[in-house]
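User: Reviewer 2 asked us to show a designed sequence for the structure in our supplementary figure. I'm pasting the structure tokens here. Could you produce the per-position amino acids so we can include them in the response letter?
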């Protein structure tokens, strides 16, 4: 039990450490004019965090997968429907918020990132591709599922959703308003976790959601570039 508690506390530190490094330490390095180096460093940080979380929670993931894999086809089918619901919810919330509040100012690194080839874009897609594992274990399992009291769990459903949105603030140039749709998505993923009562339920939906947004377009562009299109 003590070893398990230690692992959970260590698990809670992974995403905050990634956020601090990405938000405050990486900008201190002279990488503004070298987007490729910045991409390599940020990808390394997230892959390391992913590996740490898998190591810390491998027993939980294995045990809950054994339960989730029963009626896997139907679970995946439900997950696909829930992914569609996530995109609809995201667009709905964005439509409610005034457009000028969602404006993201571009910076020098954005223009540099635009010059990256399809291969580098594929590398950039690795982070959102693997992010669901660490994020679901942190927000849905540790910050939601570990609480048994109904009132506390209801409160934490919103707390973890807000925190989930805020960790994406780097994606929107520091615009807090632009993270609100992702706060709602975080609550949505929390509800999915509670309904499935299994961490793989929310991981799969989150993973599908991110894959459609990142790895599939990047892979498509990479294939086109490979054939010189």
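Assistant: Here is a per-position design you can include in the supplement:
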């Amino acid at each position: 039990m003590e070893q398990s508690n230690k692992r959970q506390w260590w698990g809670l530190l992974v995403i905050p450490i990634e956020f601090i490094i990405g938000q405050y330490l990486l900008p201190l390095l002279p990488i503004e004019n070298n987007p490729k180096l910045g991409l390599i460093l940020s990808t390394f940080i997230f892959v390391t965090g992913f590996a740490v979380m898998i190591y810390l929670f491998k027993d939980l993931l294995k045990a809950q997968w054994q339960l989730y894999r029963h009626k896997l086809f139907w679970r995946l089918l439900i997950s696909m429907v829930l992914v569609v619901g996530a995109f609809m919810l995201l667009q709905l919330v964005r439509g409610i918020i005034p457009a000028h509040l969602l404006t993201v100012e571009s910076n020098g690194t954005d223009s540099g990132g635009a010059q990256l080839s399809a291969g580098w874009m594929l590398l950039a897609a690795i982070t959102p591709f693997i992010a669901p594992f660490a994020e679901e274990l942190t927000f849905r399992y540790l910050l939601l599922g570990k609480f048994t009291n109904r009132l506390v769990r209801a409160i934490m459903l919103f707390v973890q959703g807000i925190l989930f949105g805020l960790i994406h603030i780097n994606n929107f140039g520091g615009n807090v308003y632009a993270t609100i749709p992702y706060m709602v998505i975080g609550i949505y993923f929390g509800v999915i976790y509670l309904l499935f009562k299994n961490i793989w339920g929310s991981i799969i939906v989150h993973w599908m959601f991110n894959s459609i947004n990142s790895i599939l377009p990047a892979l498509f562009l990479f294939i086109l570039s490979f054939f010189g299109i």
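For the response letter, you might also mention the following. The radius of gyration is 18 Å. Residues 108-114 have pLDDT under 50 and may be disordered.
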